Amino acid sequence: MAAASASSFTSLKSRPAPGLATIAAVKSGAPLSFSFRRPVPAVSRLRISCAAKPETVEKVAKIVKKQLALPTETPVTGDSKFAALGADSLDTVEIVMGLEEEFDISVEEDSAQSIATVQDAADLIEELVQKKCG
Amino acid sequence: MLSFLRRSYLNFSFMNPHYCCLSRNFSAALPPLLPVQLPSRMETHLWYVVPDEVKSAPLLSKYMELLPQYERDHVLGFRGDQLQKSALLARTLVRTTIARYQVDDHLDPRSLRFKRNIHGKPEVEWETKDGFCPPPLQFNISHTSSLVACGVTMNSLIGIDVEEKRRRTKNNILAFAKRYFTAHEVEHLNAIPDSELQQQEFIKLWTLKEAYVKALGKGFSSSPFNTFTIRASSGIAVETLDSPQNLTNNWQFALLELMGSHYVAICLERQETGGAGKALPIKLTARKTIPFVEDELVSGTNAVVTIGGSVTQF
């Protein structure tokens, strides 16, 4: 018998076994993604940061909450999975569109499909923004 | 937290005469599943559950017990009761439905294993046994918080997608379509003057495109939405951008309106054609179900209305 989670909110730290990020996406009808996390380039000493990471994560969280009509006080962190928050495939695409507008970037469809968590989105945004900033 | 999944004693009272109950109060196992016949090679079975109609906490508890630990963890990983419930019902529906086809005489929904094909599409992993040749059973699931559906065929690749009719996009439809759909589809949507109708057409198009990609089973990155057009003027067909003159004849579609509240799009690999390459209609059997409790054959009733594609309901 599965033990119901002791905390009121689903523990964001208890990740499913490897492979389930994709299963999670499929079960909820969200697009299949084949890479659990888009590869982030190794640290570059010449990196110019146009957006600090925590800020980016915050902005992504805000857009996600808006799309999914979650109350603003809902805890959404880098670890939060879109699917677990209730995003289906249409929500995910709308979120990406919202991120494109907010950060003035263009996200390739295959990159968009590999976004599973808020952190994935923030990392991708930073990479794309950096490309723009030089 | 799925609060009603606390361990509790079971107290079922199955009212439905389809299921033989020894007593109204169950303290032990669920009744056996009623077997159903496999779809013939030309048939498509559509099964669905309405989450709002499944209210019994003990029953949901029992559903949870059917799942292996990793699936239970996955269900509990969803945020909030409603999401957890529809995730649970989706796993329960697929397990119980496939079990009911009694492919292997003693098939227990608990013992079904699933795997992914090389492209990542979920499939049943049949036990390897002497003399046992697994059937070419194909299935696909889709769910929203208000509907959980599973399509099953023998041999035909299948993709299904369900959506509430009144689903609204946060973004402007045309802006969204211009970004993600093809020019022809944008044109089609743009030509609809009434915004309510335009919204519904958008949702129909979305579900059809999803169903197609899910039927292909190769993942969305292999078929981005702006690389194929769904044409739905007379019948429904898909046209890929890399061979525009060649309407892809391999796939046929059905678009249904379920219970007046949801669109269900089904995409099937075409198996046979009638004379002169003409497609035969999709033979559809639709059943509303609550696993272990009741089934209702709804095809041919008001609950299932064909609104696109060529479909014969049985």
TrEMBL record, chain A:
* Keyword Repeat listed: no
One GO MF term, please? Answer: acyl carrier activity
Residues spanning the membrane? none
Instruction: List cellular component terms (GO).
Output: chloroplast
Q: Which residues form the Carrier domain?
A: 54-129
Q: Which InterPro entries match?
A: ACP (IPR003231), ACP-like_sf (IPR036736), ACP_chloroplastic (IPR044813), PKS_PP-bd (IPR020806), PP-bd_ACP (IPR009081), Ppantetheine_attach_site (IPR006162)
What is its subcellular localisation? Plastid, Chloroplast
Q: Specify where it is mainly localized.
A: plastid
- Keyword terms: Chloroplast, Fatty acid biosynthesis, Fatty acid metabolism, Lipid biosynthesis, Lipid metabolism, Phosphopantetheine, Phosphoprotein, Plastid, Transit peptide
Keyword Ion transport among record annotations: no
Could you tell me which NCBIfam families the record lists for this protein?
acyl_carrier, PRK00982.1-2
Alphabetical list of PANTHER family matching this protein: ACYL CARRIER PROTEIN, ACYL CARRIER PROTEIN 2, CHLOROPLASTIC-RELATED
Family statement drawn from the similarity comment of this UniProt entry:
Belongs to the acyl carrier protein (ACP) family.
The free-text function statement in the UniProt record for this protein reads: Carrier of the growing fatty acid chain in fatty acid biosynthesis.
Q: Under which name does UniProt file this protein?
A: Acyl carrier protein
Source species: Linum trigynum
What are the leading ranks of the lineage?
Eukaryota, Viridiplantae, Streptophyta, Embryophyta, Tracheophyta
From TrEMBL, chain B:
One of this protein's GO BP terms? lysine biosynthetic process via aminoadipic acid
Q: Pfam families per the record?
A: AASDHPPT_N (PF22624), ACPS (PF01648)
Keywords of the record:
Transferase
Q: What is its EC number?
A: 2.7.8.7
Which residues belong to any copy of the 4'-phosphopantetheinyl transferase N-terminal domain?
61-149
Keyword presence, Transmembrane:
no
Is the keyword Transferase assigned to this protein?
A: yes
The source's superkingdom equals Eukaryota
Q: Where is the 4'-phosphopantetheinyl transferase domain?
A: 158-267
| GO terms of molecular function | holo-[acyl-carrier-protein] synthase activity; magnesium ion binding
Q: What cellular component terms from Gene Ontology apply here? A: cytosol
- State the top-level EC class: transferase
Designated name of the protein: holo-[acyl-carrier-protein] synthase
Organism equals Linum trigynum
